[in-house]
């Protein structure tokens, strides 16, 4: 199911701590995505492959994120 808002999970093991921020993709949330980029080492961008109608929109949003190098 699509994420509504955001979810946070932390996993800690020997030598590392992983914080996972699952941030929803609703249009009203997208302007806030960049607030979560500080101290980020990796970005995993997930789309709903069953929602073919949103492929183009999703590609545009990913392009916008990646085009702003200083953010990621």
TrEMBL record:
InterPro entries documented for this protein: ARL2/3, P-loop_NTPase, Small_GTPase_ARF/SAR
Positions contributing to GTP binding: 25
GO molecular function (one): metal ion binding
Keywords: GTP-binding, Lipoprotein, Magnesium, Metal-binding, Myristate, Nucleotide-binding
Residues that hold Mg(2+) according to the record: 3
The family this protein is said to belong to: Belongs to the small GTPase superfamily. Arf family.
Protein name (database record): ADP-ribosylation factor-like protein 3
């Amino acid at each position: 199911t699509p994420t509504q808002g955001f979810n946070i999970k932390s996993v800690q093991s020997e030598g590392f701590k992983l914080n996972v921020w699952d941030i929803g993709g609703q249009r009203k949330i997208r302007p806030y995505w960049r607030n979560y980029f500080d101290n980020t080492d990796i970005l995993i961008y997930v789309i709903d492959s069953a929602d073919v109608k949103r492929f183009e929109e999703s590609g545009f949003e990913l392009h916008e994120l990646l085009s702003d190098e200083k953010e990621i």
